[in-house]
Amino acid sequence: MPTRPFSDIGFSWRRVFAVFLRHMYVLRRSWPRILDMAYWPTVQMILWGFVTTFFMGHSSWVAEAAGVLISAVLLWDILFRSNLGVSLTFLEEMWSRNFGQLFASPLRPIEMIAAMTLLSLARTLIGVTPAALLALPLFDVWVFSLGLPLVAFFASLLVFGWSIGLIVSALVLRLGLGAENLAWVAIFAVAPISGIYYPIETLPAWLQPVAWTLPSAYVFEGMRSVLFHSAFRIDLLLGALMLNVVHLCAAIVFFLYMFRIARRRGLLLQQGE
Q1: I need a surface site. Which of 33, 87, 139, 218 has the fewest CB within 10 A?
Q2: DSSP 3-state assignment of 174?
């Protein structure tokens, strides 16, 4: 009796990179897509750069840390792009009706998740890096001066974006392409309570406990601590790390559950434009 090779049974990075390369080949040959990824973060950075320039002469809070608003908008774009990196990869497979072919192969759902997160990392770096570099000649703000804390902030926001992207992808898989707009709007539900441009204590007292359930709130408070007090708060980093573990595990379980339902009901073959 023939037996399946171990790589067909267990987790295979080879299959993960196969999905990753498939999307990267498409991306490499599509300059409009690359420009679109870098365009919006750059426009946001320029807009908030001029806002910062104005407020530096009218707000002592902004004047204390000249790069606080630009750093905030760049970190926010990391969260936004990492969410889109997951959900758009998933949607592109749905739009092309490719799920039937993908999952007729040995590819497992958990490997698809791994491929989507890798693509999210690539898309986020492509989108945010030009804006971060342009902030120096345009506004004399070098976000990389944050040093190692920037790496921690980047990783925390990236993982939180993955969690949101996986939940959105699972909902689209269950509800169909009529729910695809969730990929763009869901992330903005957490923006007001993440404290991107203002401290969490600005929020109403009843809303602050809700904000502290989001890793992004810890990241933006940590960013302000570095910029205003030159202090990297480990407690905030640990808070973001623990919450990210909880959010990401919950998102993966939710995605796998929805995928199982979709497979049983034959939705994988029915989704598409």
Answers
A1: 33
A2: helix
Of 262 and 64, which is predicted with more confidence? 262
CB-CB contact of 273 with 177 (8 Å): yes
pLDDT value of residue 58: 67
Q: Is pLDDT of 2 > 70?
A: no
Helices of type H across 176-206:
182-185
Instruction: List the end-to-end C-alpha distance of the chain, in Å, as a whole number.
Output: 41
What is the full DSSP assignment across 235-250? HHHHHHHHHHHHHHHH
How much is the pLDDT for 243? 95
Give per-residue pLDDT as tens, 8-22. Answer: 557 889 999 999 998
* Signed CA dihedral, 125, 176, 97, 103: sign only: positive
Structure tokens at 202: 């600005």
Q: Which residues contact 145 (CB under 8 A, 6 or more apart)?
A: none
Residue 1 has what pLDDT? 44
Q: pLDDT grade, residue 125 (50/70/90)?
A: very high
Q: Are 45 and 74 in contact (CB under 8 A)?
A: yes
| Helix 68-95 and helix 109-139, axial crossing angle in degrees, nearest 10 | 150
Nearest-CA neighbor of 173 among 119, 104, 245, 103?
Answer: 103
